[in-house]
Every structure is written in C-alpha cells, then in structure tokens.
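Subject: Sanity check before I submit

Could someone independently write out the structure tokens for this chain? I want to compare against mine line by line before I put it in a report. The sequence has 337 residues.
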Amino acid sequence: MTRARAAAALAAALLIGLALLLAGERQAPPLAPAAPASAPAASTAPAGGAGWDAEPLPESLRGTSVDGDLRLDADGRFVPGPEAVRLFEYFLSATGEEPAEKIRLRILAAIRQRLPPAAARDAEALLERFLAYREAAAELFAARDLWLADEERRFQLIRELRREVFGAGLAGALFGEEERIVAVDVERRRVTKQPDLDPAERARRLAALEQQLPEAVRAARREALAAVELRAAEAELRAAGAGPAEIEAERERRFGHEAAARLAALDRRRAEWEERVAAYRTERDALRAQGLAERDYQAALAALRDAHFAGPERTRIDALDRMEAEARPAGNDREAL
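---
Independent answer below. Compare away.
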C-alpha cells in the first residue's frame, strides 16, 4: 500500500465521513445485544456464503478492488483491527444500492473466503457488533440532532459509543489510530480559530500537532500539498507563455527526473481521456437530438457508453453525465443517466 493510499484509507474512516454514511438507508433488522468479543455470533447465512461472492456487484463497486483485510496471528486466530473495519465499510459503501441484508451476506462471504472456520466465526461476530454499532450511531445522531453540534462534540459522543459497544480494548484496536487523527484535526481547528494567538505561536502549535500524526498521513499530506503547489507553479508558467519543456524542467527541479516522467505520462493519459470523453459526448448529443422515445434513447445511450468505456471508466462517465445533467438548466433536462 502506498503512503497516499494508506492515508486515504485512514481518512475514509474518519468520524465525520462515517457519520455522513450513517445518515443513509438503514434496512437491517434489529440485532441482538452485542456478544463478548470471544463469543462468535450465530449467522443466518448459509454455509459457504451462499454464492454471494459470485453475485454481480452493485454499480458503485464494479471495477474496484476490495479495500481492507482480515489478519491472523501466529496461532491462526483472527486479529480485529482497522483493516477489518475498512473491509466491512467497502461493502457497506453500497448502502442504498442494495438491501442491508444482501450487503451483510456479501461481507460474510468475503470473510469465509479469507479465513479458516474458527477465525471466520470470530470475524463474523465482529461484523455483527459493527453493524449494531452503526445502527446505534445512526439512532444517536437522529435522536440528538448531532448534525447541528460542533465536530468536537460529535467526536466525543461517537468515541463513547464505540467503547460502550466494543469495550475499551477492542475499540482502541479498531478505531484508535483514526481517533488520534481526528483528535489532531479537532485541535488544529481550535488553534486556527483562536483570534488572539500570535502568528508565530499559531504556526508552532500547528507544527507540533502535525508531528502527532502517523508518518503515512504526514507523508500523504506533504505529497498532496506538493501537488497543489506544482499545479499553481505550472499555471503561472503557462500564463507567462512557457511551453512543455519549461514545465518539464520545473517538475524535474521539484521532484526529479523519474517523477517528472511519471507526471508527463499522467498528462498524456489525462489528455487521451479528455479526447475520448469529447468524442463520446459528440455522439451522445447527436443521439439525444434524434428525438427517440425515452426507453429507446436510454438503451442506445447505454450501448454508446459500453462502446467507449469499460470497467471503472464506465462508472466514471456515468458520474460525469449525471453531474452534467444536474447542472443543465430546467426545461433542457433530458438526463443522460
């Protein structure tokens, strides 16, 4: 896993993102009170996962790789950790596209594919407790109007709920690193908003907070900042009339020859993608102008997309078309969905 991906995986599970996810559809039936971590929960899924690993994935997950993992210790026992939470959340991100029970069965199938029976039972027990936790968090937010509370208050209540559901030790294993990152971000906002702080003291405190973050997160932030600064520098160079050679020289100065070559390759892929999108949209607009019945138009549009794009590209162009349709003025809203 690259440093950027490691940081992204951590950030994806942060408190606010999880809280937003919990605002979505909740179709799961009521769950029994959480069992102790050592007591596997009984599963209603047929043995072997009932072929859920072979079921077509929901559209948002097609062409993607399963995030997260399930770890074993030296004795072959399941080890709960943040990577298990990421695996659960990977499938749960399809909430709203599929019924909650179907998603649950998908996760059970993924567990049984990856772990031997005894370890799988422990992972299934963790899944049931995690689903109960999500349900309890959604109810907590709905009952207390926590969307209106400040981030620090939301963080505190979610942290308390996690320890109530999982116990202090297991909650720390599952969410400890994430919570340390959130705590740093909460404190960073507090420092940033203090109007009476001397600029030098504010900078000192922010730098000290940055050092409390895991190295993977700090490295990813440095890389993201460097990318933003590079784009700004390139925009200035282009505005001054610089050509490709000057842009490449600036990239080499900042990142070295190999990184500059990778950026040039990325530019070529981006330009090729934009050309393909432009060609597709020309054909799409011509298709729209034919005045086909809606059913025929949607069928022809799907065939056109399939002809131009595949895998993750298909999902990407669907999203781009949807955004374009939402931005189209009223009265000209035949959506390309």
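---
OP: Matches mine. For the report I'm noting this point. The radius of gyration is 24 Å.
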